[in-house]
Write a structure and sequence with these properties.
Blueprint: H1 2-21, E1 24-37, E2 43-57, E3 62-70, E4 74-75, E5 88-98, H2 99-102, E6 109-117, E7 153-160, E8 165-172, E9 178-186, E10 189-197, E11 205-217, E12 220-232, E13 241-251, E14 254-263, E15 270-280, E16 283-292, E17 305-315, E18 320-328, E19 335-337, E20 342-344, E21 347-355
Parallel strand pairs: 4-20
Antiparallel strand pairs: 1-2, 1-21, 2-3, 3-5, 5-6, 6-7, 7-8, 8-9, 9-10, 10-11, 11-12, 12-13, 13-14, 14-15, 15-16, 16-17, 17-18, 18-21, 19-20
Length: about 350
């Protein structure tokens, strides 16, 4: 609790001093509280997410962004303390500068830099499910948003004026990670090409390509993403490649989505299906199905089913209140709830999500 108070005091001091240096200061963030009574009748509650932010427009060409975070957690699982917030830290401190604008140059491109402690955010392939289950677990999906790096980093973003493409470069200051990327959009299709180098070994790295189509046909709003990533010189124990695809359809008050991910070890790995109905604008009735087709079966894990989430949400202005029920698979692992902002293993849950 002492750590929490120290960080809150630091945030107050920061917000008090920023107006002296910045012409425009904005405050925001997100807070999520949730409670769970699991299948065994064990009750728990926790502030699962608290992320206050400050955005200061220092001048016409420089913007400073600061974010504090508490540790996200999962309810209904042993080993999590539900009585107090023990982890609270400075997650992002990023200064973004429009170099070409500051220099007063009229060029056929713009060059911006980002310096500080932050996630590169090169790309996070445009999955269509609410939770991103088709982009789940460890390698090789985490090429997209590694970080932030404790030693800091620098990112360069070069946008070409007459072309719908941009070049990107990121490096941490220790030289342990480098990423380059090319992004662009052509009509209803956007895409990324990426290369990540995480070591100095020649020939190592991860290549990535992804694209997403977004459009409307006869009143049906469609989203169709695909992605593929390949690790060069992957050790025999690692997955050499991963791939994924999805499709979402919105029509009137109905929403349906399906996502799929596989890799060289499990051609059929994670699958997710979403179904939602919005009879009123603030009211949503939803259901999510999660399958892990790449499980290693044991005496307690006998099914591909990871879990089913059924619930109702209602927006009372800015906050969204939700109540739902989780039916878990045989391995009792938590499944992502509320777009993967927290996890529930089983039973009834109640949550409130507010962005400000």
């Amino acid at each position: 609790m002492k750590k929490l108070w120290m960080m809150l005091i630091a945030l107050v001091l920061l917000t008090a001093t920023l107006p002296v240096f910045a012409a425009d200061v904005g405050f925001g963030g997100r807070m999520i509280w949730a409670a769970n009574i699991d299948a065994d009748g064990v009750a728990s509650g926790f502030l699962v997410r608290f992320r206050p932010t400050v955005t200061a427009k220092v001048d016409d060409f420089n913007t400073l962004f600061v974010e504090l975070r508490t540790a996200d957690t999962q309810l209904g699982l042993p080993g999590f303390p539900f009585d107090t917030v023990t982890d609270f830290w400075l997650h992002d401190v990023k200064l973004t500068t429009d170099l070409t604008g500051a220099l007063g140059l009229e060029l056929p491109f713009t060059l911006k830099t980002s310096l500080g402690l932050f996630e590169p955010g090169f790309t996070d392939w445009n999955y269509v499910s609410e939770s991103g289950w088709e982009n789940y677990y460890n390698w090789p999906n985490k090429i997209a948003d590694w970080g932030p790096f404790h030693q800091g980093g620098i990112q360069l973003d070069l946008a070409i004026s007459q072309l719908p493409v941009a070049l990107h470069y990121f490096s941490d200051f220790a030289g342990d990670l480098m990423m380059i990327g090319l992004s662009g959009g052509f009509g209803p299709v956007v895409g990324w090409l990426t290369f990540q180098l995480g070591s100095a070994v020649p020939g190592d790295g991860i290549l990535g390509v992804e694209a997403k189509y977004t459009g409307e046909i006869a009143g049906f709003k469609l989203g169709v993403p695909v992605m593929f990533r390949y690790e060069l010189n992957a050790p025999a124990a690692d997955q050499a490649y991963t791939f994924g695809a999805g499709v979402s359809v919105d029509y009137s008050i109905f929403h349906v989505a399906f996502g799929y991910e596989g890799d060289s070890a499990h051609p059929a790995d994670n699958m997710v299906a979403d179904l939602a109905v919005k009879p009123l604008d603030p009211l949503k009735i939803y259901g999510h199905l999660y399958l892990d087709m790449g499980k290693d079966y044991t005496a307690t894990t006998t099914s591909e089913l990871t879990g089913v989430d059924i619930g109702v949400s209602y927006k009372f202005g800015a906050p969204t209140f939700m109540v739902g029920y989780v039916i878990n698979g045989t391995d009792k692992s938590a499944i992502p709830i509320n777009a993967d902002t927290f996890g529930i293993a089983s039973g009834v849950y109640l949550a409130v999500d507010v962005s400000y």
